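Closing statement on the thiamine diphosphate sub-project.
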Amino acid sequence: MELDKIEEKELRMGVPNQVVFSNTLQELAVTDRDILVTTSDSRGSGKLVPFAEKFPDQVVEVGIAEQNLVGVAAGLASAGKKAFAVSPACFLSARALEQIKNDVCYSDNPVKLVAISAGVSYGALGTTHHSLHDFAALRAINNITIVAPADNYETEQAVRSAVNFNQPLYLRFGKKAMPFLNEQNESFEFGKGRIIRRGDDVTIIATGEAVYPAWSAAKVLETERGVQATVVSMHTIKPLDVGLIADMASNGRPIVTVEEHMVNGGLGEACASYLMQNGFHNAFKIIGIPDEYTVTGSQVNIFDHYGISAEGLKETVLNILS
Amino acid sequence: MTVRELRLKSIFLRKQLLKYIYHAKAGHTGGSLSCTDILNVLYNKVLNVDPKNFKDPDRDRYIQSKGHSVEALYVTLADKGFFPEDDLETLCAYGSNYIGHPTKKVNGMEQNTGALGHGLPICVGEAIAAKLDEKNHRIFTLLGDGELPEGSNWEAFLAAAHYNLDNLYAILDYNKQQITGNNEDVMRIDSVKEKLQAFGWEVREVDGHNIEELIEALNNGPFKVGKPNFIIAHTIKGKGVSYMEGNLKWHHGVPSDEQYEMALNELNESQSLI
Ligand SMILES: Cc1ncc(C[n+]2csc(CCOP(=O)(O)OP(=O)(O)O)c2C)c(N)n1
Ligand SMILES: [Mg+2]
């Protein structure tokens, strides 16, 4: 695969992805009265207060009851509504997991599960409020597409694609303002990874809010060490873009994966499984949250602690190259 | 402690929790102020727990189901000597054990809570175990009214009555508000008393800011032999700081310099009137 360099300017700062989710949905709801949002005392966190003010009839509030949230959304979807079930990722993907497995996926009701404040967005609130298991749990369920957009562009496209997507979908957003990662190479499709930056020495495959630190590491590697990294935003965790992974692996370069998720069962293991079973032997390293009692602090504190940062990833890449 | 001393203690605890929330720039202010009097009475008048020997198997258990109001619990435990108060200067900081919800890393905490709807089922388990072991300790939990719609609570209400758990005390911090709005508008839970009675619990209703009523209700169980005990404590979210009282913004609002000073002035004023 030809690796032409993408020109990089300073990144333009955006807003939190969950704000883009709400803004985009408001725009779409004007003409699409079938869009319904179900909330579990979660509209503030989901940035949906303006949505609720403009479209009071398009919000179904269930109170603090996430299992009911997903069950009700399944019923709405079954009746032909475009149901977005919005709740913090930690509760949506753990508390309501059986409703997701049975009522959404198994019964094939095309609910759009919108997981907000995902990963360690609620860093200082502790493990109850972290979702570091959701990719793993949902990857093990048939009939669901899992998407973690990296920036505002991917988020807007994901929400637009979601509205008429006729299968179960899990959209995962964080709380932090995100920069636009590549405005020259914009194209978005569920199941197709997006190349943010190209370089010949190493490939970093990241997802969600971990893409920005991966991009930052690539910049530092280039300026400090002359190391050229390709960075992929693998926004869709399932189905995985194995064609792109094969492309990246085919020239033998090392691969590093980065995710705001436990190292067990997430993006990294999904890539590893594909590579091993298809004859690739690239040097390979998974960076994520290790299987331990997770440290607390801000999201940045936690990322720094576990090496999901420009410095941390620079070290990982230099180690794997040596 | 006398009732007057407890009243003064409540003011002190309110000032303490505001201090640490202000310092950390994070915390669940409204819900902590709403349950301060309940925690004060529990730890200073009701619970048999020893900071020096917390793991005593015969201790009373207190599991805070509405874990987000951890700041009220932290300052109450610090005041009882479970840990040095200074520890709270690290509240919510990187690597601190004093995070935004209860964890067992802190001396005095029974369980790691924070996801709503988990406290009561654990208490049912503790209460069944106490019965099996023929122990006399009591098990307490504190529920939020917004938390009640979680189905797990209703599963546990059934189980507690089924197993005749008269050693179990569930206290409802009934401030009638949650994050998005009033319970009335978000999810109605009306007739709580009748609902719980229908589920086989013995119910008492108290003013959750009245020290005497709290002592009377919390210390005189079981209300009926063989029945679990439910205490509806009518409270005000943000209690004690008038600009916070009943104002949704203070669910997890953090006071500015000026607001912090206003709050302290008001609490000092209330203190001088006791
Ligand atoms: C399972 C779960 N869902 C959602 C939340 C987020 N949350 C934290 S506090 C809260 C509102 C709680 O309201 P209430 O129980 O009335 O507490 P209080 O008014 O006493 O603060 C919500 C929705 C949570 N902690 N756990
Ligand atoms: Mg409440």
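The first strand of chain A starts at residue 13 and ends at 16. With this model delivered, the sub-project is considered complete and its resources will be redirected to Aim 3.
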